[in-house]
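Progress note, sequence design subtask.
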């Protein structure tokens, strides 16, 4: 039987994000085209091209959802974030990652983020972050379509967990060259068809009828969303501010992790418990 807590037992408490310097947190969404960062108490503070250094000699350390230059990615994070963090603080970091090829991405991301001297690094599927940012009911099957600049993912979430996913190395950046909205739409249709064929239950069908949650920069392109609506014959639900949805969802998880008692660390006992006891005469 568990007794009631001692009336003078120390209670782990957090102050709000801005003054709680030791609990500084960063949410990151590092894509092939743009990198976005959210810092606790300040919101989205970085939304810039993903390049090792600005200028004509810029090199892209992330390509098609793969970190190809870990050291360059680390230099980018150092340049963008080091001066924005309180001194002598080790932040908690959550990184939104692609679903497929996620193991390799997560390993390289953890190495790159090490330049920020984090006290912990967590990763979350970008699709889950998008669902959280949209306030979607994750207890029901949910299809998430993330249209990036160089990568497009279709992900099926059940109870918030990834149960199926498809990806294509095609995005909005390819439409300015030889690609067209029809090419991207057909690629999405093929991925959905493959998911439907593989699913022996009705989960994917139910999620499709409920509507597809659309995010990423492609969700801001009406020529893309209109083609998708006509081709897929399913309702589309565009996330508010879809281009920052993944990093904002990661920020929500950061808030939850920040509030968890395990994130507080050991707390000193109340001052009156440290007072010496009077000696008997």
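Output:
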């Amino acid at each position: 039987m568990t007794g009631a807590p001692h009336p003078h037992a120390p209670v782990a408490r957090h102050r709000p994000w801005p003054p709680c310097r030791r609990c500084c947190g960063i949410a990151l969404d590092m894509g092939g085209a743009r990198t976005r960062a959210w810092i606790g108490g300040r919101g989205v503070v970085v939304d810039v091209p993903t390049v090792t250094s600005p200028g004509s000699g810029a090199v892209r350390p992330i390509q098609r959802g793969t970190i190809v230059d870990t050291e360059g990615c680390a230099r980018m994070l150092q340049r963008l974030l080091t001066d924005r963090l309180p001194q002598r603080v080790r932040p908690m970091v959550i990184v939104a990652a692609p679903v497929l090829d996620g193991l390799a991405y997560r390993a390289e991301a953890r190495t790159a983020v090490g330049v920020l001297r984090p006290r912990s690094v967590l990763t979350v599927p970008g699709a889950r972050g998008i669902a959280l940012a949209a306030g979607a009911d994750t207890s029901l099957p949910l299809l998430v379509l993330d249209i990036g600049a160089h990568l497009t993912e279709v992900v099926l979430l059940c109870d918030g967990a990834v149960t199926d996913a498809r990806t294509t190395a095609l995005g909005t950046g390819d439409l300015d060259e030889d690609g067209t909205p029809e090419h991207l739409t057909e690629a999405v249709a093929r991925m959905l068809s493959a998911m439907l064929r593989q699913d022996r239950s009705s989960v994917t069908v139910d999620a499709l009828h409920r509507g597809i949650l659309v995010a990423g920069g492609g969700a801001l392109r009406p020529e893309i969303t209109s083609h998708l609506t006509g081709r897929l014959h399913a309702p589309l639900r565009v996330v508010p501010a879809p281009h920052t949805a993944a990093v904002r969802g990661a920020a929500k998880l950061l808030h939850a992790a920040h509030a968890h008692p395990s994130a507080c660390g050991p707390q000193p006992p109340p001052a009156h418990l440290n007072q010496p006891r009077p000696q008997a005469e």
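Residues 104 and 251 are 22 Å apart (CA to CA). Work on this subtask will continue into the next period as scheduled.
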